[in-house]
Amino acid sequence: MSPLLRTRSNHHWPRQVAVACALAASLGAVAQPAAKITSNAPATDADVRPGERLSTWLLRQPEGTAAPGLAWRVPQERLAQQFLKNTLLVRIEAANRLAPRADQVERLKLITWLQGMPVTGRVALGVVDPRWLQAHPEEDPILSAGQQLVAPQPALKTIAVVRPNGELCNVAHEPGRSAWDYVTACGPVGSSDWAWVAQPDGRTARVGVAPWNSQPSDEPAPGAWIWAAPRDMTDLVAASEGIAKFLATQGPAPQGTDTATAASTAPVVASLPLETHAPAPAAASSTTVSVRPEPVPQYQAYRSSGNDWGETGLLQTPSARMGQAGDFRTSLTNVAPYSRFNFMFQPLDWLEAGFRYTSISNQVYAASTTGQSNKDKSIDLKVRLLSESAYVPEMALGFRDLGGTGLFSSEYLVANKRYGDFDFSLGIGWGYMGSSGNIRNPLLALSNRFRTRSGSSSTGGEANFGSFFRGPTAMFGGVAWRTPWEPLTVKLEYEGNDYQHEPQNNNLPQRSPFNIGLEYRYSKNVAFSAGFERGNRAMIGITLSTNVASLSAPKAADPPQPKFTPTAPVNPPGWASTAEEIQSRTEWTVQRIAPQGSNLHVWITESNTVYREARVQQIIAVLHRDAPASAKTFILHYNERGLAMHAQVVERAEWVAAHYQAQTPAERRAVSQRDYAPPQDNSEDRLIDLRTSNAASASANMPGALQFAEATMATWEHRPEKFTFGLTPSFSQILGGPDAFALYQLGVAATAEYRITQSTWVNAALNWRLIDNFDKFTYTAPSNLPRVRTFQREYVTTKRLTMPVFQLTHVGRLNEDQYYSVYGGALEPMFAGFGAEWLYRPWRSRFALGVDINHVQQRDFAQDFKLRDYKVNTGHATLYWDTGWNGVQARISVGQYLAGDRGVSIDISRTFDNGVTIGAYATKTNVSAAQFGEGSFDKGIFISVPFDALLPRSSKFSANFTWAPLVRDGGAKLGRINPLYEMTTARDPRAFNFAPPDDNKPKAGDNILDFGPAR
After folding, report:
1. Residues contacting 48, CB < 8 A, separation 6+
2. Cβ contacts of residue 904 below 8 Å, gap of 6+?
3. Which tens digits make up the pLDDT trace of 593-634?
4. 3-state secondary structure 430-442
5. Which DSSP letter does residue 956 get?
6. Cα angle vertex 593, ends 590, 595, to 5°?
7. pTM of the entire structure?
8. DSSP H helices in 587-681
9. Whole-angstrom distance, CA of residue 884 vs CA of residue 891
10. Phi and psi at residue 197, to the nearest 5°
11. What does the DSSP 8-state code read for residue 141?
């Protein structure tokens, strides 16, 4: 049920009444056919024949039956649709009692009209071409007893606009017209903000029909319903989604024709013999009208655009606009003397954040040994406070240069209002953005402390809360115009900075506070910008953008899917061949395959990846193709390093049905429970071991042919490799340092692993630095703490061939939910030692708790087996929390760091449905900002993108990038490998949920109530 249908009242009697009514109606609907099942009336050729395909039925029908308005009605879906109908009636009736008496009569008409509409049980269909369906059996339903197929009228020519009183306004369909055109033809202009369109095929969509929200959309097809509640009828606006979805269950809208014509074009209903049908929806008689001769304005869609600072905005000024969750853009802009390299991302719909490097060409970097221009690092944050509506602007509160040195620190409050292709912004800025002081600080009405503002920080890195919203204040604003030429946007603004209070006394002449610019969108992901600012300087820029939440890549380089047939193989090829193909398709390791009665067990390891479910489907496809008919159930056991993590049960018949025919929502809901936590005692392993020994003794007395068949289906076990070795490219970079903006190295890494037992192994790595510019790397940062990280230059430049890791690890399981590990060796490039970790992680829990304790000693700069003198004990207690809200996860660690300081680390991230993760971290210890040095405390931003979302071939690995503005010694954690939390990700409640974004194409069996979400 949509949240738009939920009542705001704390009393739940409307829902209880709706449930009771729905149950009664459903029981009546279910009982009705059974009462007449004994009749012997003959079936006509149009009747549904149980067990036949939809494609077969369509081939028996007259031409024109295979149209988008064809309705597939399933009795099992009536309960949910009855509940929706009753909820709508109760909601509208409850609101009607509070409405003025003059409005109550009109609302009662709407209630009466809705009451007269049948509960159909309609389920969506995708493509209805019978030949296409025959080629795609997974989209071709097998029809069952009690189901109906209702063909649309032969000639659909009108659109039905539903008025607030339930009357239908039938408008003649004209190609190229929008929903706004049809709404305008039937009602007062400008009375509605949104129109909900229910297309004949059951898709629903919300469409803006006002100048502030209009944008291009799919045009309504003949037979569509349109519901557009006036904005002042807030209760009907709140119920609009539910009304539109219920209208979608009715099939095509009634046409505006006379009675005789309507009778001759009544829809054809095909069903099992003697099935009784609900009456067609009642509708007030309506004369067909035409849309107005002049189409309503066709406005361009709003498109987020970056300003010179990378924020969503105009040129120098920000706006209140936001992009979509997952938007990520990087831009390079120049307006002398400033060049800005911006990285902005949007983890949530209402939150924009990012960081930038600013190069000041007429200032020298004080710490530089190469004479490069001054560089400034900064972090930005913007939060949406209000969303735009008809009379309310979109409003946002933002902070610029929040976590840097504060050279350009600003706070601002800005509002935006759109009218057609024009988007207006108006805001008030403090700090750098308000330096002209063109208005009095309004907060002086509260206190005189808002009169003055402190200067920038020498160490930076901290938000100077004491200076927020203080000092000079200025108004700013502007407008962006989406021109008729789609790629071009024109921007005009008035900024609040007069450039006479620039950081470090670097004042600049300004001839005008007005700036003008253009943005040319070369493609969806590339934009060029140019402008004229300050009345005397040209601006140029380029922006690269994408949406990481929608990243996906067709797997053109993958092998084709295993050939599917609904029946089991006659001659199974043997488990060795099956295991080999599973491994080649998934990059997972198959340890054992063991039949046991009607169950087929498969043990899998090294399965830590993001897109697990896609690989599970590959495994089941291979097992179904190769397993004998006696295997009714496939059971997949997941373990890592000998630790049982997770198990899945797949009923073979259910999997075949899902791939052999389109399923109704009820059939999908009836799928058996698939997941369970493996027992701690490894009892399943012992059962298989017993099966193996029994099979070996029994087969010795069989004839040769039977021995071959038994051997083919006997337990197969993979002989593990003791030693593995691999070569991979290596790359690392250091950004924003005083020696050069970018220091880098490119090399080759050799990794090796030797397995002593399944749970005990040795990891080793060698890195050979081939190409770099480390000859420029001469700067070693100052430090007031033990140098646990600031010897970065010494570690990366001393030797070209280094050994970053050489570690012995042993892991174990204490009980069903507790794991441990002990380890020792060269744990990371800078430290060696030994330690232990304990993790409590209940299966499918959103919480986990871990503790690690380590004694380490600093390694020699050559990264060999030599050690330096510095030793320290370090460790943390860490709480892991999956909030269950928008994919947001949090980690909170408390403990002692490498420099001996003690404090807290917080890591907050969001993982989108396609597996891309964006996050930020910060550490604050008992070290003061002055003692920590530049940056004040440790912090950074990170992103992780699975290669499955980027590459044309499946890969279980991910690309990871972390940005930290500075490397300092305070708050430094040990960077060891093989942490237990990462090893046990299969126990996460979302472990098997990540997948490429849905293509949103209509599919047979889609639930109408969830079909085509609003955009």
Report:
1. 57, 143, 147, 148, 149, 270, 271, 272
2. 892, 893, 894, 923, 924, 925
3. 999 999 999 999 999 999 999 999 999 999 999 999 999 999
4. EEHHHCCCCECCH
5. S
6. 165
7. 0.88
8. 612-626, 652-660, 665-669
9. 14
10. -110, 125
11. P
